[in-house]
Every structure is written in structure tokens, then in C-alpha cells.
């Protein structure tokens, strides 16, 4: 899942981003509305965690523009404006959910995960294909009953491949879905993770390279 955190309180923004990364999410951070707008124009995010009172471009304007454009990005407003009229106004702008500060972190993660599921075609939280089982809520994976000890990045890449349901996924699409904006598209990062996954998944091989196209599970 690809997430953008737009929050001008830098310490809070970084803490939220780091926590979401621990749940196998690829997270970018924008400290003002202008930076958030630029990133939204470049990347296809599943979820936007949006502070309403952003400098440069107000969070309300960002929310309104995404809603008008029909973007698939789901919006979680995270703000100190917590009264009922303010929540109603925020949801009226097009936000999908609203969480006032201060917040419980476990609740934030759960809400982001729920919105992420809504941003894609509906699938069960537990993915299965052949003998592979991937529990996206508890970050657990197994093959033929054997527990797999995967890194967060390996888990994220395997989730993208399983959600593709046998379709070919390009290296570029894997970078867009499982890495943040700091990933270098000219590195071998995808190839290295695929190699590690193949080793952990064992035989018979289940991740296949399609020359010139990408990878298929």
C-alpha cells in the first residue's frame, strides 16, 4: 500500500510515517500543502493522511480537488479540529474518514488499512494462491503450512504479486506500490527482493520472470 502523510508538524509527520512503514506500507511525507499537491500529481497513492490546516495549500483545498477529480486515493483527515460541525464539514469536502488529534495510534493504523482496502478492488484480508497464504492484517505468510519469515519489503512485494492474481506486474509497478519516493528506479532493488522471496518461498518456484515485462506469481 502506498500512503502520503501531509502534516506540517514535522515530528508528528515523521512518527506517523515510520509507524505505518512498520506495517509494510510505502510512505511519503509532505510538510506543506504545496509539496503534497506535487506528490499527488506524480504518484498514485492508496491513502492520503491529511492535516486540514496545512501551509502553502490548505488541506481543505487538497481534499476538495481530489474529490472533484474522482481520484481513487482515500482521504483520512487527521486534525485538531475535532468538533462535530468541523467533522461534518471535513467529510462534506470529500474526506473518507476523520480522526481528531490526539489519536490512538492503533486506531490510526486500522483506519488507514481499512481505507487502503477500499481504494482497490475488493479482496479478502487473507490472500491465498496455491499453497500461499498471506494475512495482510497480521503481516503473516505461509506456504503449504510452513511459516515464512519475511521482511516488511518482501511482504509488501509478495502482497502486490498476489493481488495481481496471476497477471504480470512490472518492476516499475512494484516500485510504485511497495517503495517510497526515495527509491531509485535505476537500482536493482526489485530484483534483489524478488531473489530473496524466491529463496524463502522455496520449491517449486512460484515467482516467474516474464522477460521484458516483469514478474508473475
TrEMBL record:
Gene3D superfamilies from the UniProt entry: 3.40.50.2300, 6.10.250.690, Winged helix-like DNA-binding domain superfamily/Winged helix DNA-binding domain
Record-linked Pfam families: Response_reg, Trans_reg_C
Taxonomic superkingdom: Bacteria
Gene Ontology terms, MF aspect: phosphorelay response regulator activity; transcription cis-regulatory region binding
Domain Response regulatory: 2-116
Modified residues (4-aspartylphosphate): 51
Coiled coil regions in record: none
GO biological-process terms attached to the record: regulation of DNA-templated transcription
Regions recorded as binding DNA: 124-217
Family matches, as SMART domains: REC (SM00448), Trans_reg_C (SM00862)
Name this protein carries in UniProt: Transcriptional regulatory protein CutR
GO CC terms: cytosol; protein-DNA complex
Domain OmpR/PhoB-type: from-to ranges: 124-217
Alphabetically ordered keywords of this record: DNA-binding, Phosphoprotein
Gene symbol of the encoding locus: cutR
